[in-house]
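Memo to structure team: turn this sequence into structure tokens by end of day. - J.P.
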Amino acid sequence: MLAQRLESEKAALRLTPDEWQVRLFGQDAEEPEHDARHTLIEAMLWNMASRALVLGTNVILDYGFWAREEREDFRLRAKQLGASSEVHFLDVPEDELMRRLAARNSQLSQASFHIPEDMMKPWIAFFQKPTPDELERRE
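Reply from structure team:
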């Protein structure tokens, strides 16, 4: 996993909402409360991340960042704290994403929750691929 590799390479604090979601609420992806819980977890993780950034610690937000607007929002937050930011992106075809999802779903752990295929397909269609300027490091 890219985030775990970067965590080691950059001596960073990796914050992955899915890990928290499963440990706190179990396999809840299809429950009505899932999205509200996920939003709350991301907000709490950002609070930790912002403190770590102020202290000079590298942070990896292992969030979905499905839309450019969301990525730009967090980059602005980092800039306001005096931190630089980078977007890392793996360009993977849909058939490979679905293969990886099937593998993930067959090996559930405390680090990931089951995502039904029919739930993932609309997200794949919604995803806004980062533009080249988004992939540049910002100070």
